[in-house]
From TrEMBL, chains A, B:
Species for this entry: Alicyclobacillus fastidiosus
Domain Ribulose bisphosphate carboxylase large subunit ferrodoxin-like N-terminal as annotated: residue spans: 3-129
Key word Signal present: no
Pfam families attached to this UniProt entry: RuBisCO_large, RuBisCO_large_N
Organism superkingdom: Bacteria
Name by which UniProt lists this protein: Ribulose-bisphosphate carboxylase large subunit family protein
Segments traversing the membrane: none
Keywords from the named record: Magnesium, Metal-binding
Length: 420, 420
């Protein structure tokens, strides 16, 4: 049998001794049940049981973070201990299967009453997973090649309003953006395949404009069509995009599951743009769910090429520190050439380029500005230009004000979007 | 355009006025972005915008439940207001698509910084969803017919130890259970298609025993094989089960996504046993994620026939009140004949039958005891018998002690499993 193990790191909170709590986790997620059963032999425990690799005590919690925890009997005023626990699971318990891995490392254990907090913070799987799933097909280099962009981030936008544009309105917008030299456009995650404007009509309308603009400019915009849907629709929608000459598909990872993403990966001919909507539900409570570090590893294994990370000063709850850590995670190899392009998004405009570059020290990002381009006072083309100027300033080491003094689009963006 | 709407009910927590917070939610999840954009016309807002149907103020929170909330500027000591908010979304924004519906009703809004809590607590979709997804194929009646059980719950067990049994050990266990007259057996959710005992071998081994026992007893046990896996594997695994004469498949709903479940539903020839492992991560923080009421509606639409709900006095954090509500939800029709069989599980034994019947007032449950059958002092057959006796007592209105005094298997179960 394989000696390979999966390492799963948790931060736990419990009124029990950390050692006891770790034993409960390991038992629940491998050979145990609530009472000893006859067949649970020493051989089975040894061969299939989870091991406790390490326990590191952390500061205790002032109060239980999650409801339903049952402290030890007779302990009227328990200490809610916190600790980092690393468990190792035999790879042969599940094999190279993300769905079955999840049942082990992120399954019932969230519900155990011995815990008032349990969060999966890191995960290391053996290379067999990458051999099966194959990871990002295009990644950063493939995306850059298709988009024809080197030495700076891809500049992109999201079609806004998110929903409701007629095909003619959408065409006019895409035309303007494409002629303005934008690198990337994406559908909003709210816009999938709605009855009022079916995806196939949207694809035809958009690709017509993109090809026409490419004839003029020599540059073919990358457009991520939102092909999110049921399983059979993923293939149909993908084929509609590819047959129309499209060069990117977007999918809501949590809407189709990692299983849906890895299914798409088996036949996709274009990069997969991974949107993470619903992710907040899995991560915003710090005592539950999982860290982005785990999520991005699974999404990469499953085969996304781009992955949303939020951007600095976003309109969401996420801190800049967390965003920067997420970007770094996406750019950290797991088994080799398997990094993906982080997608900076939400509340982005030209002025966020300098801070982003300073904090992230990379140009390997896809920088999306929705309102920051669409609502630019000089119009959409000026919005695109301002984003490029922001990154020029960042790469040349200029301050925003300095560079804006000689670049009108950047100055207009500052006037409209800079927070006082 | 269709006048149909989707109604989504949330419990929110926010340092803003509830009305303002509801406007933010509605805007984010329909036509809005962080700044007004030129194309967001009155027509678009009216046709595609989400409406606020109702706001009901609840007791405020003492402190913010989730991190990252940004109170209004200048409000140094904000009140974290709580309220129930009902939003209505135009059906034509997404059409009958669970994946795209999720992006709207459960997407980015969890991350909005205006909120220190946001939980989806109910969801009503128009009938077009049921017309597309078709819901449970077998449901309660179809399951009862296949299992040959009327007038009482199906009595079942989970193979324990969860993992590690050799095929010969598994066969011996299944034989014993089948000859003891059990109605239902399931694989553990940890046991999918592991290299040490591939599903196809497990299916062959188990079905051999089940058919042999059926020849003797005239009763064919329903066995839920855990076919959880990647998308193409779902069909392969399903076919392996059906070709071997199997009559149920189990899938980890959150491991394959609702998209995976509804894909399986399109071709499954047997009932789908829906396991909800990982569900705790989506629900245990009361300020985040969703209520089981929403989850079970989506799982039923997607096509499960059985759905795990925990059982009374379970080993998890979930309260009995919550379990009973979940069972009732599964038994409440949405559009007609679309109820599913709730699966009572975790820490169950014969003694939980009486309380379950009293609290749930139904026999339409699948009552699973793992340790409660496997670790019964009289052996597995006595464990099964004790479960039947527990339900006899429940249905006849006897107390546990009373019925146990004349039924040895029930008495043995009490002696071992009853909590002092």
């Amino acid at each position: 049998m394989s000696e390979e193990r999966v390492l799963a790191t948790y931060v736990i909170e419990t009124p029990y001794q950390l050692e006891h709590a770790a034993v409960v986790m390991a038992g629940e997620q491998s050979t145990g049940t609530f009472v000893s059963v006859p067949g649970e032999t020493a051989f089975i425990k040894e061969t299939y049981g989870a091991n406790i690799v390490r326990i590191t005590e952390l500061e205790p919690a002032a109060a239980p973070s999650l409801p339903g925890c049952k402290p030890p009997r007779g302990d009227a005023n328990p200490v809610y201990r916190r600790g980092e626990v690393v468990l190792s699971f035999p790879y042969h318990n599940f094999g190279p299967s993300i769905p079955n891995l999840l049942a082990t490392v992120a399954g019932n254990l969230y519900e155990l009453r011995e815990f008032s907090g349990l969060r999966l913070v890191d995960l290391d799987v053996p290379v067999q997973f990458m051999e099966k799933y194959r990871g990002p097909q295009f990644g950063i280099a493939g995306t850059r090649e298709l988009a024809g962009v080197t030495g700076r981030p891809l500049i992109g936008t999201i079609v806004k309003p998110s929903i409701g544009l007629s095909l003619a309105e959408l065409q006019a917008l895409v035309r303007e953006l494409a002629l303005a030299g934008i690198d990337f456009i994406k559908d909003d995650e709210l816009n999938g395949n709605p009855p009022y404007a079916p995806l196939k009509d949207r694809v035809r309308a958009v690709m017509e404009e993109i090809e026409r603009a490419a004839d003029k400019t020599g540059k073919k915009v990358m457009y991520a069509f939102n092909i999110t849907g049921d399983i059979d629709e993923l293939r149909e929608n993908h084929d509609v995009v590819v047959e129309a000459g499209g060069n990117c598909v977007m999918v809501g990872i949590n809407s189709v599951g990692f299983a849906g993403v890895s299914h798409l990966r088996t036949f996709s001919q274009v990069p997969i743009h991974g949107h993470r909507n619903q992710w907040g539900a899995m991560t915003r409570s710090k005592a539950l769910g999982m860290e982005f570090r785990v999520y991005q590893k699974l999404a990469r294994l499953a085969g996304v090429d781009h992955l949303h990370t939020n951007g600095l000063d976003n309109k969401f709850y996420e801190s800049n520190e967390s965003v920067v850590r997420s970007v770094r995670d996406c750019l950290t190899p797991m088994f080799g050439d398997d990094t993906v392009m982080p997608v900076l998004s939400s509340g982005q405009w030209a002025g966020t380029a300098i801070d982003s570059y300073r904090a992230m020290q990379t140009v390997d990002v896809l920088h999306l500005a929705g309102g920051g381009i669409m609502a630019h006072p000089g119009g959409v083309a000026a919005g695109v230009e301002s984003m490029k100027q922001g990154w020029e300033a960042a790469l040349a080491g200029h301050s925003l004000g300095e560079y804006a003094s000689t670049h009108v689009e950047l100055r207009q963006a500052m006037e409209k979007f800079a927070r006082p």
